Structures are given as structure tokens and as C-alpha cells.
Amino acid sequence: MKANKEKTENPISIPEITLKYKIFLILAVIVAGTISTLTSKAQYKTKIDGEYFTHPFIQTFLMDLGEAMCFFAFLFQRSIWKEEYAQKKEQAKQSGLQMDMSP
To answer: Is the pTM of this model over 0.90?
Structure first.
């Protein structure tokens, strides 16, 4: 007796994180950290009127700018997948599952 195997297709396609993408993210973090370290070192070795630079205004501004860019990227990604998340949540409720993640 053969068992009927039904294919259940997921109507919502959220891309999976591939190994290549993970490696890319790891390398991006390493490169960004290296650039941050070298930039900080260059700032602290800079002499202004015979005194070394001691006020990290530029470094602080760039750090805040980078954080703001990450926040805007998060908002953009969330706006793209908002409908798909709502559909998946509704499907989970109909199946008796609870999906309790913030959108």
C-alpha cells in the first residue's frame, strides 16, 4: 500500500539565510571593525596646535550615523515583509499555533 504524500506549499516566501550570506555578514563585520579601529587610531594620533586630538566628536557622529542607518534599514525591511508576516500569523492561528513575534 502506497502512502499519499501531499505537498504543502508555503504561499509566503521569506528568503532563507544562506551560508554565502552568513560569510558575507561575518566579513562585513570584520571589515567594519577594522576600519573603525584604524579610524580611531588615526584620530588619536592627530596633532592640533601641538596637542593630540582628545575629543572624539567626529567618531561619535559617525557612530550615531551608522546606528541610524541600521535603524532605517530595519524599518525598510519590516515594511517590506509586513503583509507576509500578517498572513503567516493568520495561518498559524488557523492551524492552532501561536506565533508571538513582534512585527
So the answer is: no
